[in-house]
Design a protein that fits this description.
6 helices, 17% strand, six-stranded parallel sheet, 34% helix, 183 residues, 6 strands, single chain
Length: 183
């Protein structure tokens, strides 16, 4: 049984209420709660930064659940990271650059939702020019690498505004979580 922190970066906007990512967070909490100790943070609901740092120290693994806004995480998730990831708790100075992460015994998973269709990543003739989602989110991966964490397989949902299909994506997510966090 491991300790898993789920950080939900859902953010209400003119185009979305953030429900999909909140529901994905709840689905993960419920599915993983059967065999793991799970804590959650819904950033938009508010948080105490010292409590958040304690959650990160407690966690063996962190799931970052967020919508992709303009090719990256929402501003509230970035602001949360800026506040939480402090020197001497998450990292220290290392040589070479980026080698001072203090969370080397922890893993992370990115679970992102996109309005972009899956086909936008198909090949060099499409918008993302053949990049996969992890390559498109390289800055998020590098931030976790900087603090020493090791990646787990990411999860992605496409077309969440045009055709959200929550039920089938929730089931797919639960299967993914069960495979990744199998004991």
């Amino acid at each position: 049984m491991s300790n898993i922190l789920i950080v939900c970066g859902a953010q209400k906007t003119y185009i979305s209420e953030g429900k999909f990512n909140r529901l994905m967070t709840e689905a993960a909490k419920e599915a993983l709660g059967e065999n793991h100790r799970v804590k959650t943070t819904i950033i938009e609901d508010g948080y105490d930064i010292e409590d958040e740092r304690e959650k990160w120290l407690w966690a063996d693994s962190v799931i970052l659940q967020f919508p992709t806004f303009w090719f990256g995480p929402p501003s509230i998730l970035k602001a949360y990271m800026d506040a939480a990831y402090v020197r001497k708790v998450f990292y220290d100075r290392g040589a070479p650059y980026g080698s001072g992460g203090l969370f080397t015994d922890k893993t992370y998973m990115i679970s992102s939702t996109w309005n972009a269709p899956e086909e936008a990543f198909d090949d060099v003739e499409t918008f993302y020019e053949g990049l996969d989602v992890d390559e498109a989110l390289v800055a998020m991966h590098k931030a976790q690498q900087y603090i020493g964490m090791q990646p787990l397989p990411s999860f992605t949902v496409h077309n969440v505004i045009v055709g959200p299909e929550f039920e089938s994506n929730r089931d797919r997510f639960i299967d993914h979580l069960n495979a990744v966090y199998a004991d």
